[in-house]
Specification:
It contains 5 helices and 6 strands. It has 205 residues and is α+β, with helices and mostly antiparallel strands. The strands form 2 sheets. The protein has a 4-stranded antiparallel beta sheet with strand order 1-2-3-6. The protein is globular and about 55 Å long.
């Protein structure tokens, strides 16, 4: 028999707030200490902190220009609203802890990137390959509300090699696995989704 929920809405709210705070603290540090494309090695040749700004979706994928950017921000806000309502419904139904935590991880991940889109253009100066951004610059930020860039920094090039010459099209070309650069908010979403898929699938049956 599945364990039933024994923690309160306040506990979940604190959990979400703590993870959001960690996500934002890391992003603000990177934004104010790194120039674009600047990187430092964390472990060997497979884990780097490399700062890029993502104008689009998760893991560095882009989402079509200024209007696409606004549409993505609005979709994120709608998704967060629906997720919040759904988590509240799960708690009222006394759903298993794992189900609530899984959706809370997805929620906080979406919130983390929404904060970037909503406010970073207003509170930071522009990051370039030559200049590190300033928080609350005198002349105002680099963008407008809902048009901020998402800060990404986690880079795991686990395998760097070359495709064999005999392979069609890509033969002889270099490749990197895993090449996307992402942030903690993206990781929260991925972990939450995989956790629900692997460990909580019985609930949805």
């Amino acid at each position: 028999m599945m364990k039933r929920l024994k923690f309160s809405g306040a506990t979940i709210a604190c959990f979400i707030f703590l993870l959001l705070l960690i996500d934002q603290a890391v992003k603000i540090y990177v934004k104010t200490h790194f120039a674009i494309n600047e990187s430092v090695t964390v472990f060997g040749d497979w884990f780097f902190i490399r700062f890029i700004e993502n104008p689009g979706a998760a893991f560095g994928f882009q989402f079509g220009g200024e209007y696409g950017k606004m549409m993505l921000s609005l979709l994120r806000i709608a998704a967060v609203t629906l997720l919040s309502v759904y988590i509240h419904s799960l708690m009222k139904k006394k759903a298993p802890k794992g189900v609530v935590i899984g959706f809370a991880l997805i929620l906080v991940g979406a919130l983390g990137n929404i904060v970037d889109c909503m406010f970073y253009g207003l509170i930071f100066s522009e990051s370039t390959v030559f200049n590190v951004a300033t928080l609350f610059p005198e002349g105002g930020g680099y963008g407008t509300f809902l048009h901020g860039f998402v800060v990404d920094m986690l880079y795991f090039p686990l395998i760097e090699s070359t495709f064999p010459d005999w392979m069609p099209v890509v033969g002889g070309e270099d490749f990197v696995f895993f090449s996307p650069i992402f942030n903690l908010a993206d990781a929260y979403i991925s972990i939450g989704f995989l956790y629900l898929l692997i460990f909580q699938n019985k609930y949805f049956r």
